[in-house]
Amino acid sequence: MLDPEQLLYVYELKGGVPPPFLNLEGLLGVWPEADYTYLFFTSPADSTLESFFREHPEYSLTRHYRLPYGYWQQLAVQEPLVIDRFKIVTSKQSVKLSSDEILLWIDPGVIFGSGLHPTTRGCLRGLSILYSEATPATVLDLGTGTGILAIAAAKLGAQQVEAVDLNPMAITTAADNCERNGVRDSVRLIRGDARDQLPEAELLCVNIHFDFLETFLGNSALCRYRWAIVGGFLKEKLPEVRLLLPSCAMVKKPVLEEKGWVTLLLEMVS
Ligand SMILES: C[S@@+](CC[C@H](N)C(=O)[O-])C[C@H]1O[C@@H](n2cnc3c(N)ncnc32)[C@H](O)[C@@H]1O
Description:
Blueprint: E1 7-14, E2 27-32, E3 36-41, H1 46-55, E4 60-68, H2 69-76, E5 81-83, E6 86-89, E7 102-105, H3 118-133, E8 138-142, H4 148-156, E9 160-165, H5 168-180, E10 187-191, E11 203-207, H6 210-218, E12 227-234, H7 238-244, E13 249-258, E14 261-268
Parallel strand pairs: 6-7, 8-9, 8-11, 9-10, 11-12
Antiparallel strand pairs: 1-3, 1-4, 2-3, 5-6, 12-14, 13-14
The chain binds S-adenosylmethionine.
The site of S-adenosylmethionine has 25 residues, from β2, α3, α4 and β9.
């Protein structure tokens, strides 16, 4: 993990979450929001980004900041965070849990998946609902970020979880978080593109930006799973997402929504 004094160079960009960012030199982490993306570097990345914008004029820089990592942590983390059955903390501490509460100890660093974002929260709610009625033993988590959904699934009873992310820093962060939560043996982390990594599983969790979902949901890959939890898109995209879903996918109720972000719980029917 980073030193609290370590300076972070944060660049705010307008224009969604462009996949090519992940190949930028020195990139530590990416936080996608509705219309903006925040890129984190440990040294100034002005010249790297300048050449990026020349090649991708569809994206633009709106602001940039410089702040110590410790300050970012205070902004990014409010704890304990309670989401359904999950209580999320960022540091080792004794926390009072009721009989059905589950502790998630997640240090996000600069990686997406602290539990604050509505898409993460929707997926955690989806997991909680699904595991109250079934017990998927195997789970595939695409775009794992901090590993939060993979860890939650393991703690809910999944025996084997495969978790994939493009960003190597996400894999390191997720590995540390798995260790903290005592689930290192049941979660296998894979650094790679979710488009190429589709191991078998009963349950698929995918919380990746809409550009990814648009192509992913449009093919019949979903039909290989028994259930799926799909997050990462705004309410206005829901009709489009419904049209993209293959005929094997039945949308279960409730459709989860928070601050305009939607999460779907799907059951595949033959
Ligand atoms: C919105 S975050 C979700 C993190 C976490 N699963 C959660 O629910 O909070 C999306 C993650 O997907 C990763 N990602 C984006 N495109 C990807 C791709 N094509 N293949 C694998 N991972 C990808 C990003 O690096 C990021 O960590």
